[in-house]
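Handout, page 2. Input:
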Amino acid sequence: MQPRRSGSSGLSLSPVGLGTMTWGRDTDVHEARALLEAYLDAGGTLLDTAAGYGEGRAEATIGELLGDVVARRDVVLCSKAGVRTTRDGVRIDAGRGALLDDLDTTLARLRTDHLDLWLVQAPDPRTPAEETVGALVHAVATGRTRYVGLSNHPGWATAQLATLARAAGVPLAGVEVEYSLLERGIEREVLPAADALGLGVLAWSALGRGVLTAKYRRVRPADSRAASAHLRAFVEPYLTERAARVVEAVATAASGLGRSPAQVALAWVRDAPGVTSALVGPRTAAQLADVVDAADLVLPEEIRAVLDEVTAPPAGYPERR
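Output:
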């Protein structure tokens, strides 16, 4: 995997990143080790996590593997802050105190003194943008992270915070947003904003929350996320008639190319204009091997054009945060 620069920053990222949302919960440390080793063997370096994944268990699992499976300097660590699970449910807090507390806890779990990229995980309408940016600037100034950015922010908020950060002398390096053949809403505002502001784009759930692998075409596998009590709601929005038509188009293209649907879907996102890295979250080494094999796949322009047409968002399609 040839690394790419994240926007106009000096940060280099693998074109395919390894997501860890299920680590420490559905994926135990032994499975995580196998995934990490296979990913590193394929030339990958980007590990994407968050303070809220598994209430911190994902970060703790990575911390257990760092230094054992791989040296800290040989990976790019990206984590996110600002979303917490409390007794009253999920709470979004992008205030200075909450963000910096999360960052310190993240570093302790990961057993490192710095992140390579630190992101505000979700927009917080209650906190002034200047305060959120102030926390990002402080984190860079104190050496706790090398680069900063945003996750799941709409276009207007991305532009607002990026402008404030640049004025403060710490330009944002990237934005992490959902993007796949099943979710193209960011093309309306986020992608143009990122391009204009010099931000790299990290596309999470590049395989449409697993649906674009075509594993749900006829049944819901018992070991799949759709059959998991705590992940079912994550997958079900894409188990629709429209999504099924998209999956069929991807499967048809894959059959013609002699590839798997997952490889076609990943190649489409990875090479989409503006995308720096496509993030995947395989649960097994076999699933990871399938997407890693897409490294040499360049979609013919005819197939990309057909997929673009089949999956284009309908008129008035809203942009996801």
